[in-house]
Fold these 4 entries.
Entry 1:
Amino acid sequence: MAAKSWVLTDHSANEYVTDLTLTDKDAPAATGCTVTKRTLRGGLSDGVDVVRVDNGACRFDVLPTRGMGIWRAWVGDLEIGWRSPVRGPVHPAHVPVGESTGLGWLDGFDELLVRCGLESNGAPEFDEEGRVAYPLHGRIANKPAHRVSVSIDDDTGEIAVRGSVEETRFHFLKVRLDSVVRTKPGEPGFRIEDTVVNISGSPAEIQMLYHCNFGLPLLGAGAQVVAPVKTVVPRNDHAASGVKAWPTYSGEAAGYEEQVYFLELLADDNGRTQAMLKDAHGMKAATMYFNKRQLPCFSVWKNTTSAPDGYVTGLEPGTNFPNPRTYEGEQGRVAKLDGAGSISFDFALKIHRNQAEVEAGEKEIAALQGDVKPKVFDSPQEGWCAPG
Amino acid sequence: MAAKSWVLTDHSANEYVTDLTLTDKDAPAATGCTVTKRTLRGGLSDGVDVVRVDNGACRFDVLPTRGMGIWRAWVGDLEIGWRSPVRGPVHPAHVPVGESTGLGWLDGFDELLVRCGLESNGAPEFDEEGRVAYPLHGRIANKPAHRVSVSIDDDTGEIAVRGSVEETRFHFLKVRLDSVVRTKPGEPGFRIEDTVVNISGSPAEIQMLYHCNFGLPLLGAGAQVVAPVKTVVPRNDHAASGVKAWPTYSGEAAGYEEQVYFLELLADDNGRTQAMLKDAHGMKAATMYFNKRQLPCFSVWKNTTSAPDGYVTGLEPGTNFPNPRTYEGEQGRVAKLDGAGSISFDFALKIHRNQAEVEAGEKEIAALQGDVKPKVFDSPQEGWCAPG
Amino acid sequence: MAAKSWVLTDHSANEYVTDLTLTDKDAPAATGCTVTKRTLRGGLSDGVDVVRVDNGACRFDVLPTRGMGIWRAWVGDLEIGWRSPVRGPVHPAHVPVGESTGLGWLDGFDELLVRCGLESNGAPEFDEEGRVAYPLHGRIANKPAHRVSVSIDDDTGEIAVRGSVEETRFHFLKVRLDSVVRTKPGEPGFRIEDTVVNISGSPAEIQMLYHCNFGLPLLGAGAQVVAPVKTVVPRNDHAASGVKAWPTYSGEAAGYEEQVYFLELLADDNGRTQAMLKDAHGMKAATMYFNKRQLPCFSVWKNTTSAPDGYVTGLEPGTNFPNPRTYEGEQGRVAKLDGAGSISFDFALKIHRNQAEVEAGEKEIAALQGDVKPKVFDSPQEGWCAPG
């Protein structure tokens, strides 16, 4: 499969393309497709590079400046993503990840898909002196890619946006994320192939969590999570109080306190599984595809507060649950890499545009569920939920 | 009143104007006026947008990149502002507001007018773990505006620079400052109308303090504060030691330790009040106009150190005194906003260019003072001054 | 000596040159020389200004955006510097120096020559509340120059790159580094003249350490430090365990734990001294020249870990050893400046390109050593090594 390819950023060669537009004139197989690269100016976004891919059916924005996150996606008129009170995409210079509170990451949080990791993700953790050992959700989302390119397959017209991002600190973790985001003409979504490479000559541990966030209009009163569930555990007592309704969503409620559920999903013999967010009427939905062998943990974060505060849910396949790093390490929920070793993660998002497509997606999930009855705990469980 | 208007930055529409010059050819009513927008390059200022307004009598620099602060002003040859040891205006990327000391804000401090807030202002405050709960003077001055525009009234030639700046952190405070800076052809100063909007669906509390800073040549040995004073309280014992001379200034003294006085001013029936900094000879002065109902607290910060260290005084109308946030909250000195609620602040600065103008300004203040005798405490007072 | 000169950045005059190339057409005396200025784009380097000087024999990159550090140098095919796991040069916006760990400086560490200071250098130090009092290696390397220029001497063709960088915090230290980097056509290296000026009207203390870093291919198994040694003290027990081999280097060893030695060197009557890093075969070397009266302390940092982790040694003349600031202050190892006072530092790097040049350099060192026998301690010494 031959492909044409365009370098957008190559730090080593000091190449950098400020603006680029590719159409099917540049790559005839990509019928009806457009790829544009631009740099945002002004506000908190000043200096953020955006690669917009439009495959005719679906368009989405890749953010090389924010660790190859996906800002938003659109399928026809339907916007997928959410409206954060943070007006992003935010340049990392405005995100104080290392702030002493450990919460600076929140200043940049507005993407449809933000990777949490790679040294750690989850709640911030402090050392004995009270200093941040692991800031909330880690550093990778606020690291800019040093190499970015686009290629388009000559035959299939498949568009691939590649980016490499490093999270390295001298004397500490040194890892590289090599990400490829793929989509074909007319595909109602995209697919991601990520590889995390341990640059170091010594072993390392990493965590990865795909924090995939949905808001209005897909989310709404009566929307629900559809997934092949083996186990559900509420993260804390507050989540436990709502566990009976864990898969369904309420409408906007100012002051709503977030509820989080930790899940083990069922999968096929190859580890493949999927989870769907379905709107109240079953007329549209989004399905995430991933592999339980790579991403064994699945978290559902419900934050159905008022719209201006960020009415949103996060569906989050990960190597771990978003507990503090030390606790997760104790449970063995980290990925261990040899020196120069690597690990890969596959993730895809597909949008269901009508009732038939939604039902087809539900059927796939029902097949994975089979006749297994989900085990839903009504209280936090040891080994799942960090104390306190 | 029809007006012409030019968008400089509109984050939502991805509009951004790198350079612009407007003259009375663009807006005939603004006789002799010029508005320019440029972006600074190099040093700590790299990437800072500046809107310079010159109305023929007065010119001043508005800083969209620094929360719509006013960098400096000039009336004829007279520079209003001060010479900070910080070589600004400083891009927020170089200001570590969240640094664990809580003092990173100082790295960007060089403006004539810097807003302190909006979650808090005043001395840094730490939580029980020793982590910064409220950094010195808050975050708003280091947030870039996402929307900036200039308009010029067709009839009066009044120039308005508008900017909107957000201070939002997911799960925490979410507020927006909508600022308008106005001036007319020939006006020896400018007027500000600020509105702080609570974006959230839930109630919020904010603080606002206009940290207005004057140095040489207006400040100097023998310069003084002229204001309609009800009460003066020294912030601490050190300030108490100089309270008899609170309204007058010494010349430069290397190693001078700052002294701060907390004041309640008198106002007219509508809350309007004003305070003046007058030079030693009564030949020039600057008056700040504001409303005591909006900004009930007035602080005088004396920092008459050597010129290269920053010989400066701050006259600071605020919702509160610049004590730690928790203490001020206990005294009720915060502004409470409903969900989606807002509060407005009016502030103006006028330069008096000669003895007659100075005397006219003093007469206004004398009228507000009437025959009320100021109450000057010779020690810190409970309810005014945070202990320790 | 007349010279032509070009301003690259002048913050005060709002001058900034984006791209510039100078050749001997611009300055005939600089035969075969080229000076280029460009701004890097993309990745962590986005916005970093680089001045590359090529004198025909040696080329090197000066980094105005990173406190006038020297990124790398090349003499013919030989690269001088090292390959850090950090992909730099890193823009200061991505270096959280004030992070609560005190270790954020490591995120930007990849230069051949990085100045550590000026308030402090060395290991991070925390106050009683656990907050960073002195972050690792200080702030100067992450401050951008506000004034940068190049001049070329009409007679000698000597190229001088000048830059001024400030490390100022209102109410705290206010100092300026005025740096000149010089080289002549055909010179196998460069010379630096630094002056640190106390901007303040009050006395101040500073520290300066030239963290000069060498990796492959100059460093390698069997490479060694050649220096006129009076005393060697291992920093801690781990360093003590390897003290017998202190001047020689091992090959790459994944997981190697760094070893540091503190040295007093011998010098001539004017304080001039020098230290060499020689490759295993004595075929090439790098010599640093400096003055013991200005820089009395010399540290050798051995970090012969695996190449991708940063196989490197630092040879570090300084006003002090890189112990925590308070400890060094107690030993008197700080430079004291009067108000408006200054101190100068001279530093040069010369590359030896063949055996004859290496031997000539060794001869100079042998002359300084004379018949003084080095005193090598086999354990950490009081007054040299901070406890703990």
Entry 2:
Amino acid sequence: MTREAVLIASLRALATHPAARGLNDDCAVLEFGGEALVLTHDMMVEGVHFLPGQDPADIAWKLVATNMSDLATKGAEPVGVLLGYMLGVDDARFIAGLGEALAHYGAPLLGGDTVSGTGSQALGLTAIGRATHRPVPSRSGAIIGEALWITGPVGAAMIGYEAMRAGSGEALAYRRPVALLAEGQALAPLVGAMMDVSDGVLLDARRMALASGVTIALDSLAVPLACPESRRHDALRWGDDYQLLFTAPADIDLPVRATRIGMVFARGEHPLLVDGLPPPEGEALGFEHN
Amino acid sequence: MTREAVLIASLRALATHPAARGLNDDCAVLEFGGEALVLTHDMMVEGVHFLPGQDPADIAWKLVATNMSDLATKGAEPVGVLLGYMLGVDDARFIAGLGEALAHYGAPLLGGDTVSGTGSQALGLTAIGRATHRPVPSRSGAIIGEALWITGPVGAAMIGYEAMRAGSGEALAYRRPVALLAEGQALAPLVGAMMDVSDGVLLDARRMALASGVTIALDSLAVPLACPESRRHDALRWGDDYQLLFTAPADIDLPVRATRIGMVFARGEHPLLVDGLPPPEGEALGFEHN
């Protein structure tokens, strides 16, 4: 295991609370008053999650969008955010982007902390949401016989990132990803399991299968692309797209646009089958924390 | 203004939500599910808030304690925490200290994010609490005619810090500060205003006076000390003590030990009087974010 995997395992051992699903890639969901409170925290570090020369307004946007996407997977509406901000090269640009993103999602800034730093800039955002439907969707709810769906194409962030690195093109999908809050709320009453594909379709589908104790059979050619067909292999393994991946009956009339890309079966030997076969051992399926 | 002050001013301009009191030195308080949800986020950075050689278990403890102290000022009970953790030199020690602190306060780890980093280690903690009394105490509630009280002595963290720097002594008050959650809950129904003195008694008393629109007259010799009398001047200006500073009637029978250290008057020319005089212009009263 990597150092981070060891750490995460230790933290998971500490996180024994029933609401404690919110480590790295999921939200915490807990009863508060008569409602379900949804909480998520994401950190971004210069040189790891963003490039030193990147526009701080884009970084702020992305920090908000990744957290809002976490809320979207729970069918939650945003209540507000807390910001942990280390002073950077252009704080005014960061705040401009933060303001834009918060206005876009209707999420007020409730508080946080500002600090000076000496090394790479580190940023944290806590998003607080209110579930609009109970039970609150989770990645563990996939039901045998359901179909696997995705709300839209993947590969846009990959193409955008490559364009940005090459200094060409707008790279909007990478710079300004959009969290699907309305879609998540519309889908929440209908889904078995739901998550986003921020770490890659294949990796996230595998996580859903593992959490749900099922096997997911994914039809790789059915996954809609926002990039050339020749990049299909990479696009299925790239993160930073914020489409919603969910299970629901195959014949359902969905309230949002979505594409069927697989089926849920009883758990077999492998949690994930891609075009009928388990992915090769040791092949990276996406962005792994561990 | 410093860069950080400019930043904070910009963030405050963005934080127009009525619950948005939670920037840097206060909690956000909002209605949720028929109850009052209390939220706070603190960040700590290596080289700024802790020393590179410090025991990671102590750093974890302090990160938890500062956030729990914020909850204490609201009379809130902890619901849980979200951790933003950048890999450090000894993650196992950090987790050991985190586990100790969370067990001490009965605050479960609900989730968070772990990241790798390249420079100084940055840590963030979001604490979620439930107010035990309404209205929820704030720093703006001081009432003319009330007395100013403090729950215990200041100066312990200063002495501890100096001992640690000198390599002598246990430095426990600096390494393992204790948040007064039970005291905050017991006081909440009785106080006008309440806050902690984490940035220094004089500075925090001045903030309370400004927020409440009153003048606070503080009797510097009445403030109990956990250090030699010769250090009184410094101890009143040192942060990192987590005593609760609050206003309540002068003749009240308090449920916790506390010392009267001043009075609340109608706002005069100066928000803070120390022994009858305004502190000299330009003199640092404590740890200032701005």
Entry 3:
Amino acid sequence: MFGKTRKSSKEFDSVNATLLIKGGFIDQTMAGVYTFLPLGLRVLNKIENIVREEMNEISSEMLMPALAPKELWEVTNRINTIDVLFKASGVNDLSKEKNPSEYVLNSTHEEVVTPIAKSFNYSYKDLPFSVYQIQTKYRNEARPKAGLLRGREFRMKDLYSFHPDVDSLKDYYEVVRESYFKIFERLGLKEFTYYAAASGGDFTEDFSHEFQVKCDSGEDLIFYSKEDGIAFNKEVAPCLAPESEVHEQEKPLQEVFGENIVGVDDLCKFLNITPQKTTKTLIYDSDVGVLVASVRGDYDVNEDKLKKSAHAKWVKLAKEETIKEVTGAEVGYAGILNLPTDKGLKIFIDESIKYLKNFETGANKTNYHITNINWYRDIQPPEIFYDIKMAKEGDLYPETGKPYETFKGSEAGNIFPLNVKFSTAFNYYYADETGQQKIVYMGSYGFGTSRVMGILVEKFHDGKGIIWPENVAPFKVHLIGLNLDDEQVETKANKIYKQLVGAGIEVLFDDRKEIAAGEKFSDADLIGIPYRMVVSKKTGEKIELKKRSEEKVDLVSFEECLNLVKK
Amino acid sequence: MFGKTRKSSKEFDSVNATLLIKGGFIDQTMAGVYTFLPLGLRVLNKIENIVREEMNEISSEMLMPALAPKELWEVTNRINTIDVLFKASGVNDLSKEKNPSEYVLNSTHEEVVTPIAKSFNYSYKDLPFSVYQIQTKYRNEARPKAGLLRGREFRMKDLYSFHPDVDSLKDYYEVVRESYFKIFERLGLKEFTYYAAASGGDFTEDFSHEFQVKCDSGEDLIFYSKEDGIAFNKEVAPCLAPESEVHEQEKPLQEVFGENIVGVDDLCKFLNITPQKTTKTLIYDSDVGVLVASVRGDYDVNEDKLKKSAHAKWVKLAKEETIKEVTGAEVGYAGILNLPTDKGLKIFIDESIKYLKNFETGANKTNYHITNINWYRDIQPPEIFYDIKMAKEGDLYPETGKPYETFKGSEAGNIFPLNVKFSTAFNYYYADETGQQKIVYMGSYGFGTSRVMGILVEKFHDGKGIIWPENVAPFKVHLIGLNLDDEQVETKANKIYKQLVGAGIEVLFDDRKEIAAGEKFSDADLIGIPYRMVVSKKTGEKIELKKRSEEKVDLVSFEECLNLVKK
């Protein structure tokens, strides 16, 4: 077999990159782009076959191309909005002259699958149905990182479903969710995997969902409510600020001059107060008018939540002119006091401000802030305090009032109600029972197969190397022959190898003669195959058996070995 | 299963495109780029698994990326010379801003595999070895055509081998050749497949070899010597012009004025002679000096042969100035008579001219041609008559003196002695037994898996549709249920379906109720699964069995069916 462990002590930016490269599983062709060496391809194939088996229970496999004509992506305008989209075009003059066209290199396949599905489906009898593929995807990442966790070229399973109505979509959504958890179970990841609500993007007012594997090198922050087993991606986690009630005397309202004091950090230093005594007020443009959003100084505004609270289709930080017009001041002095009442402003005050006493706000006057504000005395509280803040560690889950558990997660999969976005763009309608034309509902469901290979290493390793779960290990048995210069030992080792293979067991046989025992053992630990068997002069008729996940070493007969491994 | 046969009567530019699209195997995303629908993916997977099984006997599978840094391709300068090479770069401003880099989209993987191999191999003990992959390739074809035969995105198996010396490379070359013929045998293509010599390109003075499947829609013209079973691609076929000897009286030499008469067609009309009476003389630049190449008027010069005859590294049609200087005339009047003797010209006269009498040549004088030239009388024959012509139908194989059989071929695979081209570029040396640094020899071996799917359809079809060989058929049995509104029949059909599946047989079950029998039968013929079984009211307890490749229909018991299919 081609490939070797690497002696280099070079550390890469993640555990999975370091161990997979040192173990001879992958080779880095460039940042975010890897070759799967024979050992690594075996693992990837096992992961993809588990995914395939589960997907075949609920869908039908096909294979779409990576190249697509630009026209398809212009239909949805995503050719202009996806910031990681690649194009393919001639690299040199000869090639450009031969064919000057440019194509999209798909990072996802809604633009390809929707017209195909449309071409095959004419009536309600054809719906619902789904198709999936396991294929290579391309993303022009600025900073690929963490080995197989975020690449420019990676393997992915993507499934697309098509439905006569939203209920059918919701039913299938649950089918896929269950199927995914079967996959995580077979991969040994179920206990670490959280079904987390995430942003629905442009597609839906509802959430999409991510399958987040708890993992220190993950990119996402997960807010988990243990009591009811509900998890959220930080970007959408509903939250209450903890310890909100403050017991202190009301102090006299004060207008403070502070030239060019803008931003919470500078302000806190200047006023010698904590961020929890300040507020942060931002002005937004939106399709429903100008919005004022205010959160406690130690929080940030969550635009997704603001958008939903305002029932807006879009929100965007207001331009300088708008801010000046609304506040009557330069940018940086907006506050909730003394806002004009004649401009139709919609004001959203976060609940983190609700219980504050003697708090600060911008004075809506250049270079001025107001301190020691108190509700009722200085300003009437709004009818509703909203949750428009970005959640942070320590926040409470509103339903239980208890603190979230927070941890990093790596997104292994996601499921997404696309609803009618793509069917609308591609005019994908069907005839219902009465012959009426109705729009098709769609869902999409991703699963990062190469990323999961990286996640598995992040989860299952120790100081010596990888500890593969049995279902994805490149081989079941790592057979090490020692003292192979001794003809008797060599014969025995070869015999055991053949017997194992004959029994249908996948064996990696280390029959190198020039390598010392210690190096063979550390290679075995690094590679992480579940069962290590050693045959040497010392072991006589028996075999030294060790599980990678345990320290115990047993001297057992071949039959015992076989039983244990086959079990 | 997703996908349907297409009713459209649209014909595509090839049998394979038409039948595969109509049959619901593939869908065209754009010219030269196809989606493999579930039915088609099953066929592709079967082909690739056959290839994989045979390759695993002689090599080790890995998976290289499609993206590569430009730097790797600059090492060999092929980034500037391959005229179908794609690059990948950001498609929109957002993406370009995020990452302005450009990457090569590999059309072949020598530039990727050589540094990987080098990084793992340090001594003679590591050699020889090989690796292969089955992967998606990209080519910026100007005019993709013939369905799966020539695409911009296609599936391919590519194998690369590494050797301590040229003999080891030659040995392995034969190993791969044998392995390929095992594959063709399993695909049902062996009897149509020819091992044809082709150009060695820049890599070798020897030939490379192509596995050409005789096929009317093939792009190559194959010259086959039946006596000794040797085949050549037209581009390298050695040849003798047939019926070369002419018996006629010598006529008087004549200089003919013909203003602007350039080119064989015009000349023949003007002189009222056949092209076989004319000669075509071209002036070339080369690394060994200026070459004069002359062939009979009905032939073209084969630059590859000329290069070899002249022992040149490169040849290129000479510039206008050179031609004027050499011939003393405008372009179009070069001939073999009266060439200057003081310019070091190297003259190559093709054997097709050897037996001519009273033939024409350019006069090396603007607007003049000379006719009725005869050897000895007007010009001394050269010491050697060369074979520098492009072979054409009817030509003789020089070894036997008998006419070639010629036919079109589609290249299903090729094997290529790369020798030291890439190891030199990447400084890939190894230490031999004595510690001396020696260059590594390499070979590359391609096999077009998706193209072979197209070739199979070209070979195995009739007026009604495809006739898949059993090893690659998407299913073994096409089970058609008729009269399924009858509960008894439906129960029986379902039972047979389950029994077949239970017996480990792949079954496509047409259980559609709304479709008429005739349509189901024509779908079955179009799809081309080897065994058609029909269960209907009429068949009672028996099953109507028909092989796709035969006309005969039998009414047999389930057990008989099973035996026949399992056999």
Entry 4:
Amino acid sequence: MELPVFYAPELNDSMTVYTMNEDTSKYCIQVLRHEKGDQVLLADGRGGRYTTVIIDDNRKKCQVQISGKEQLPAPEPALRIAIAFTKNASRIEWFLEKAAEIGVQTIIPLVSHRTEKEKIKAERLQNILVSAMLQSKQCYLPVLEEPQAFSKVVQSFGEEQRFIAHCLPDQKQDLGDVMEAGRNTIILIGPEGDFTPEEVKQAMDAGFKPVSLGKTRLRTETAGMVAVVMMNMKA
Amino acid sequence: MELPVFYAPELNDSMTVYTMNEDTSKYCIQVLRHEKGDQVLLADGRGGRYTTVIIDDNRKKCQVQISGKEQLPAPEPALRIAIAFTKNASRIEWFLEKAAEIGVQTIIPLVSHRTEKEKIKAERLQNILVSAMLQSKQCYLPVLEEPQAFSKVVQSFGEEQRFIAHCLPDQKQDLGDVMEAGRNTIILIGPEGDFTPEEVKQAMDAGFKPVSLGKTRLRTETAGMVAVVMMNMKA
């Protein structure tokens, strides 16, 4: 039987005892019905996985004794995706859940010319990422950055291999054919109305390669997920 | 400007005039505000794409005159997925939408030992597939079959290349490494509690190769979506 894993972002090496926050305590004690003496794992979201035993099964502040720590290596190469958030919140929330499950290190909400959503509900989205990390048995929480302007993103990440996925009828290669294994990678995914021709040119001038994600026309959140799958396959 | 495409399943070569059903008429005339004289495309879901002109912009029974037909070749090789439907309807609906967008020819609701959902809302799911087909500019509607028992599915598809994705700690290869291009393919995706060891053995005895879909533990609907992306990349 696999041990349950809970999220403990404040946990660090100097602690011998840790108190879960109220939501996690409730989930651990009231929902999953753990009790004093049960062994549970804690993940700090930065690769640390701690073995612990419940010493106080309080449903609002469950306390555990830490008995061991394993530090897992960070996923390599680093995979980043900058994606225009959709107007429809549930579509981008699905994307975040799936991207975190499949595996990605950084998600950047991309503010391009046709992006319809520039503000994000950071706390809600953070919770989705934490659930997906725990669900998929990972130890690194993807980093959700602040929304960034297209021109800023295009000028960053100088040492990565860089791609821009778009639907304009230009010549493009499939991401799967052009991506090289073992290199840090960033891909840009546009909004429902696509990037503008000027944006595609700006990215290409900055060294981004235009790529296709398959034969069909994909919605933004689908394109994002397909890109995450392809990057993981090639990485 | 691209012409809008509407679904017309009853359309056939002998017709010169076609009347859209009430939902499609409403969408075409009331929502998209098309009117008499506008050119629109119709897709029959079987590869036929018809060029038409609206001759009666009635919002309940919009009538069009057919002026031409293009028959597009069926996607090859054929990609099939048999997947245990999740208890949570929205998760499997999300999968159907994404699978149809990315491209798959047949979806079989798989009734395995631990499947929690054996009945499906065929009409609702059919509508999701139609929307996704139109949205992604495709002309073939994926076939959603009736739910089928695991043992029956395992005995079918004798000439395909056949895979079963599972989470048991057995030796497995990545689907991307083992799948051969150009061959008809079927993959089985298990329920939340996975296939039983007996089911995995039964499938392997019938010639299914066990495969992995990546490094992380995926939910059923995520595994299904990842499999569809990988099959399309390799096909």
